[in-house]
Amino acid sequence: MKALLHRLLLACCLLGALVSGACASGPAVVDHAFGFDARVDSPGIEILDYRYGEFFKNSPVFRDRGLIPQSGNNNGPMPVGDALYVKWRIKATGQEFEDTVNLKSRLPANMARQEVYFVVQGTQLHVYLTDLTTPKPASMPIVGPFRVQSYVTRQIYPDVPGTSPQALQKP
């Protein structure tokens, strides 16, 4: 009986090591945020689908039923997304658009307490990065939608002259 318990304990330890190793080899898990609010920031636009990385995306159950949330906000420890995909429709014309943004070169190395936020304006997707630890100085120009204007926010897509990954690094 003692040998059986010893083998069971050893098997559990090995399984734990395998699971821990598998988790460690995935994307970095960092306390940060991802969000959008098409109802407020993108009037006349209907979001049809979205995906931040591989872990935060619209549920196929909702998508298949045509029940696409028009806002979303996820905060806390989660994998940093390497890409952002958004598909949308201009309600007035019925035209559909989609865009995929490679975030690897647009996000800082330290994503702790940062928020990736997107807004659609007509045919253009805009992506912002907000430092949730740094209030916006009065001298800094307003960037992005109202929701993120009280913190230091930079547009990271489409490209803006003078906004490089190096410029987004925390001091």
What do these coordinates show?
It is a single chain. The chain is of the alpha+beta class and 171 residues long. Helices cover 19% and strands 41% of the residues. It has helices at 2-24, 38-41, 60-64; strands spanning 29-37, 45-52, 56-57, 71-79, 83-90, 96-102, 114-121, 124-135, 151-157. The chain has a 5-stranded mixed beta sheet. It has a 4-stranded antiparallel beta sheet with strand order 3-2-5-6, with no helix packed on it. A hairpin with a 5-residue loop joins strand 5 and strand 6 (96-102). The longest helix has 23 residues, at 2-24. The radius of gyration is 20 Å and the shape is globular.
Record field, number of beta strands? 9
Biggest sheet, open or closed, and with what strands and sense?
5 strands, mixed
- Beta-strand percent range: 35-45%
Mean pLDDT over the full residue set: 82
Question: How are the SSEs ordered, and which strands pair?
Answer:
Layout (H helix, E strand, L loop, with lengths): L1 H23 L4 E9 H4 L3 E8 L3 E2 L2 H5 L6 E9 L3 E8 L5 E7 L11 E8 L2 E12 L15 E7 L14
Parallel strand pairs: 1-7
Antiparallel strand pairs: 1-4, 2-3, 2-5, 5-6, 7-8, 8-9
